[in-house]
Amino acid sequence: MSATGDLLVEADQLAVELGQAAPPTLLDVRWRLAGPPGREDYVAGHLPGAVFVDLDTALCGPPGPAGRHPLPDPAALQDALRAAGVRAGRPVVVYDGGDGMAAARAWWTLRWAGHRPVRLLHGGFPAWLAAGLPVSTSVPNPEPGDVEVRPGALPVLDTAEAARLAAADEGVLLDVRAAPRYRGETEPIDPAAGHIPGAVNLPAGEYVAEGRFPAADALRARFAAAGVDDDRPVGAYCGSGVTAAQAVFALHLAGRPDAALYVGSWSNWVADPARPVATGPNPAD
Description:
Elements: E1 8-9, H1 11-18, E2 25-28, H2 38-44, E3 51-52, H3 74-83, E4 92-95, H4 101-112, E5 118-121, H5 124-130, H6 159-167, E6 172-175, H7 179-183, E7 200-201, H8 216-225, E8 234-237, H9 243-253, E9 260-261, H10 265-269
Parallel strand pairs: 1-5, 2-3, 2-4, 4-5, 6-7, 6-8, 8-9
Helix pairs in contact: 4-9
């Protein structure tokens, strides 16, 4: 079971840690699904000492049939993390613009890559500002890190595994997109609307609000209501594997560190028109 203290850090506690002799490495991963790049926000002001890491180009592979945010090439990821100063065994804290999605995908990617000591700043950059803590516009030049990327430290689902999990009575595949997208009523990005047959809809807004996670007991109760229990495997997907990474993070908080991420998510599923698509409010419609 993952301890909350191993996953989240509050702004005031982070400020204390940054003043110590061996502070954590800070990664600013602010990102928008649509809109200006997060780097512009970073340049305007960031946590002192934070290094900007681009979610699209550094933490994910190039978009294509594998999805809009597929797994990164391990060697390229290692180069990017070392350039950001990530060192083996040294704690990392990631933060975003407040919704927790990009930070959760960064957390997941580092954990998947074998770097375990990584936490998410609860509430992101807005929480830091709300605490009245200092902001910097200085761009640091970190000493190159020595982290070694060893993929596979967190479970991943491919299309066949996602289909089996969704269809099996012994498992649960969570679709964490908004309900109209799940039902097939609208699809603003991908070429087909609907969901993987058998997947259960649990929109992200039902277990996280403005980047703030409820207590573990509340998370467990919400996931249980969606059919998640300790005796069955669980996985999550969304449009491109970013919001679903936040679901996996929430499942870790709820005591399910075995939760798997379908990284390619819906953007990968519908890349092959032969794959089945369900519509309507029920998992198998």
